[in-house]
Amino acid sequence: MREIKVGVLGLGVVGSGTLRILQENADDIAHRVGARLVVKKIAVQHLHKERAVMVDPALLTDNPQEVIDDPEIEILAELIGGVEPAHDYVLRAIERGKNIVTANKEMMAKAGHDLMEAAGDARRDFFFEGSVAGGIPIIGPLKESLAANKVREVMGIVNGTTNYILTKMSQEGAAFDDVLREAQAHGYAEADPSSDVDGWDAQYKIAILASIAFNSRVPVEEVSAQGIRAVTPRDIEVARELGYRIKLVAVAQQDPNGEAMQVRVHPAFLPVHHPLASVDGVFNAVLVRGDAVGDVMFYGRGAGSLPTGSAVVGDLIATARNILRGSTGRIGCTCFEKKRMQPIDSVETKFYARIHAADRPKVLASIAGVFGDFNVSIESVVQKAMNEDDAEIVWVTHRVREADLLGALDVISHLPAVRSVDNWMRVEE
Amino acid sequence: MREIKVGVLGLGVVGSGTLRILQENADDIAHRVGARLVVKKIAVQHLHKERAVMVDPALLTDNPQEVIDDPEIEILAELIGGVEPAHDYVLRAIERGKNIVTANKEMMAKAGHDLMEAAGDARRDFFFEGSVAGGIPIIGPLKESLAANKVREVMGIVNGTTNYILTKMSQEGAAFDDVLREAQAHGYAEADPSSDVDGWDAQYKIAILASIAFNSRVPVEEVSAQGIRAVTPRDIEVARELGYRIKLVAVAQQDPNGEAMQVRVHPAFLPVHHPLASVDGVFNAVLVRGDAVGDVMFYGRGAGSLPTGSAVVGDLIATARNILRGSTGRIGCTCFEKKRMQPIDSVETKFYARIHAADRPKVLASIAGVFGDFNVSIESVVQKAMNEDDAEIVWVTHRVREADLLGALDVISHLPAVRSVDNWMRVEE
Predict the structure, then answer these.
(1) Cα separation, A259 vs A375, whole angstroms
(2) Does A24 sit within 8 Å of B296, measured CB to CB?
């Protein structure tokens, strides 16, 4: 049986999972492909480190150039992460005629377009299923099975750490800081949790998904990202009372004429029957709304060694099939349109706002009056006494622009009877 | 831009949706493919019938052979349904060098293997995403994105009609017959509902999914199929009290050494937190359990003109991409193994049984004794008085063989104090 040689950059969490799957399922994979996938070289930082996978030490090198320059290697799996030097390695590998498989979300979001164009010009494959939502098939289905659709919206829970934290906060009524510490102790959150809890990780992922769904480049720096640090147990409690769950959602929508896109990451109220509302713990899910297919959802483990390895090896298999049929580069970069990014402050949704005010006559009317001045119309309002003097007033608006809501909240926060605007959040439908 | 000519057999529900998508999204599809998909001929039964889609009458013919014989047509979309004459048409089209796209579950389940082999020998594409779960991508992801995995289990809710009926029965406490009549009035069930409510439709679909997941031919006549006619409102109520939902599930499992498969359709108790338990109404979902990826689930509309059309057009796009790159037949028939089918009576699961007995001392003990005689060990038992004389006893067993359960229930039904064995059902985990 023919052998197809694979080179690997990086033997961390994803690299180990990839190697383990290639070893354990080697025979099945060979049957499915019609060729054996053989790892010929693996570039690592430290040659003598303990590994989570058994690897022949003779395969290891600490010089990535050895992998990139090896003429026998037909597919390079880039599993280092980060923009540089990964981007540089990949570009050089494409120049040397290699097909590329990567799980690198940051590189894809920030510099994926040029790499895909280079691969397309060279008629080489460039796959990156592992960069979004771990092992859940989503990039492949968007490019292939769902390619008949105009996609109106992609909405996902694409960060397992924040979903774990929000789920725990919801189950235990605990505060963000406490749950974060516990998540760090269990290895579900990093020592520096910013990339997850401030929404950057999700920002990269939704930029990638939006660019595929809408066939347009999405400048990642124009994707608005807000994390979950400001979500309080009280917000979660209020949401539940109103029939919602709070989730960190990554949303990409395009307007009906397909001219403008809005791409954003933020915590949001989701109605309890929303398909994403019951996605709990470290699980991820991506909802795609297409004009023909309607709503379809993809659900599973969004991270981890074997799940992400499953996506990487799936891409290696796709590449190998193309190599065998001489059809590498079969699907090139799909960004053939140039759509405008809509600024976040003009994006309309429903909103939730929680206001702490004096429990006096006419306070509610005065706040409502300010909302009216800013064209913020109200869907529901619930006022509750907090103690003898104070009340908590929870508002849910109809669809309004963020700029109008924030304008109103600014004025409201200066009303004499208002103690504080405690929080606000988008409400998705 | 190059044109790729498509021929269509059948302009019913799926055909109309397919044509509509090809018309409305023509430009996007052309960009994504790099060629225009042009429908050249459509074979219909009645030339002058009213259609749900605007079609140039010059494209219509009532002679399928005209479509099959047209040398310009490179892809044939078979959207008639049923085994013959569809199978014969498809085989002749393959002989004439055409690529095939079909949404025909019955033909694929009963005669798909030979067709795929013929297409493979001719190096032509043969796609059938629309045959299972409408527009939900599942066959493509199983063959591609998830190809790195040994799949242990596929479990799906793949029939919208029965899921709608069970959901309504559950919400309204209504009886099967009443909900069926209402579903027929609303067009959610056919005048002859057998194919849906007796489980044959789901039987075809799980046979198709199992053959792909396990790389082995699955003889559809050996797939056990039991429908939902025997499910009563009382079963649904009891299930809820015990923390379960009743769903018509299609299950395919293989044993750890990959030698035997069990493939079956039946109503089952699903724990309320099971990913499939909250799939309600006409929605479908398929859960795939892989050794690397873990649990992934695909959810969406499992039927309908546009959703199924989305799958058909997705397949047309995949075929067109392969035509452009000279790589048709890129993935052939994946049934390279020959696995044994395990008979249903030896398949082990937990079971539920509901027994109506005299409310007398020692009745429970005597029933439990019979279960013990048949090696049926009990996880839980709940006894409730029905009236002065009678009691209802609900049993949930540990994992046992169906043959042992049924042997026990037969003896139990003849115990003097037992009035009737009212129902039994598998309990999935």
Answers:
(1) 26
(2) no
Q: How far apart are CA A74 and CA A14, in angstroms?
A: 20
Going by C-alpha positions, the residue among A303, A364, A333 that lies closest to residue A134 is A303
Per-residue pLDDT, B305: 95
Whats the size of chain B, residue-wise? Answer: 429
B171 at interface of A, judged by CB pairs closer than 8 A: no
pTM score of the predicted model? 0.96
Q: How far is A402 from chain B (nearest CA, A)?
A: 31
The Cβ-side half-sphere exposure at B271, using a 13 Å CA radius, reads 7
Q: Using CA atoms, how far apart are residues B212 and B132, in angstroms rounded to an integer?
A: 12
Q: Which residues 355-394 on chain A approach chain B with CB closer than 8 angstroms?
A: none
Is B39 in a helix, a strand, or coil?
Answer: strand
Spell out the domains of chain B, with CATH numbers in brackets: 3-135+305-325 (3.40.50.720), 140-301 (3.30.360.10), 347-427 (3.30.70.260)
A384 membership: H or E segment, kind and range: strand A378-385
Report CA Rg, chain A.
24
Name every chain A residue with its beta carbon within 8 A of the beta carbon of B298.
296-299
List, for residues A357-376, the tens digit of each pLDDT value: 999 889 999 999 999 999 99
How far off is chain B from A124, nearest CA to CA, in Å? 12
- Report the alpha-carbon distance of residue A215 to residue B382 in Å, rounded: 57
Query: What secondary structure letter does DSSP report for A339?
Result: P
- Element holding B182 (H helix, E strand): helix B176-185
Do A157 and A280 contact (CB within 8 A), yes or no? no
CA dist., res. B19 & res. B23, Å (int): 6
| A135, A294, A330 ranked by CB distance to B294: nearest | A135
- Provide the CA A56 distance to its chain's centre, in angstroms: 35
Q: Residues A332-342: what's their mean pLDDT? A: 90
Q: Do A300 and B299 touch (CB under 8 A)?
A: no
Is A339 labeled as catalytic in the residue annotation?
A: no
Omega of the bond leading into B85 within 30 degrees of 0 (cis): yes
Do residues B106 and B297 touch, judged by C-beta distance below 8 A? Answer: no
- Which of B16, B145, B298 would best serve as a mutation to test chain A binding (most A beta carbons within 10 A)? B145
CB contact under 8 A, B330 and A334: no
Residues in chain B within 8 Å Cβ distance of A316: 148
- Within a 10 A sphere around the Cβ of A190, how many other Cβ atoms? 13
| B59-77 pLDDT per residue, tens | 999 999 999 999 999 999 9
Q: What is the dihedral of CA A137, A138, A140, A141, to 10 degrees?
A: 100
Catalytic residue among B41, B105, B110, B205: B205
The span from the CA of B226 to the CA of A152, in Å, is 39
Yes or no: say if A247 and A268 are a contact pair by the CB < 8 Å rule: yes
Cβ contacts of B312 on chain A, cutoff 8 Å: 148
